[in-house]
Amino acid sequence: MSETMIALVTGANKGIGYEIAAGLGGLGYRVGVGARDADRRETAVGKLRAVGVDAFGVPLDVTDDQSVTDAAELIERLAGRLDALVNNAGISGEMDPGWVQDPTALDLEVLRTVVDTNVMGVVRVTNAMLPLLRRSASPRIVNVSSSVGSLTRQADPDIEIGPVMAAYAPSKSFLNALTVQYARQFAGTDILINAACPGLVATDFTGFQGPRTPEQGATTAIRLATLPDGGPTGSFFEDDGVVPW
């Protein structure tokens, strides 16, 4: 088995996910580029290899049980273990003008779709990859969240937290809560799991609105994916430190 550190990043074909893959690759990790779209996935792998990253494509739809199982089997064959899992794949769901999701008029199918990707998808992937992570000497899991999932910030009228997003924001609160439950379950093991907020990043996800670049948005996730033994677990971080729940 290779001693090179192995990482999987979901939703890694573009944006923040791509930059997380690039950053880990720059640190010497062999990186699995998880993505649904075959063309975009292979284009991302090619770009990463062109800059010296040891990257390989992982066909992965986080909402599909069989796809996730197949992805775990592929990593088993190609690498034999997993040292870092970054659950980055996520969707906002349909929005009204102004990036609003009005809770009083929310289509339950939109809510169901967002939760299936942003929450259940993380559980699917994490649990499928756990046997591979347990083979690592220092397994790390990072759930890419958002400060809009902070109930403390959402409930404070003096904090500008953006528009009402009744599907997306609660999905990140749910993800944060799950991160804590995983951390409790992993207590006493070598597995460290944390949530990361990338900030408001200019990508197609945000309509290219935001003061931060994808590379800047990737920094916290990269740091958490490479934590030393004894590092924090069950916490929520952004560049400036801990985000309140």
Automatic annotation (TrEMBL):
Q: Identify the domain of life.
A: Bacteria
The family database entries (InterPro entries) matched by this protein are listed as: CBR1-like (IPR045313), NAD(P)-bd_dom_sf (IPR036291), SDR_fam (IPR002347)
Q: Which GO terms describe its molecular function?
A: oxidoreductase activity, acting on the CH-OH group of donors, NAD or NADP as acceptor
Name of this chain's protein:
Dehydrogenase
Q: Which organism is it from?
A: Streptomyces populi
Family, as annotated: Belongs to the short-chain dehydrogenases/reductases (SDR) family.
Q: Which UniProt keywords apply?
A: NADP, Oxidoreductase
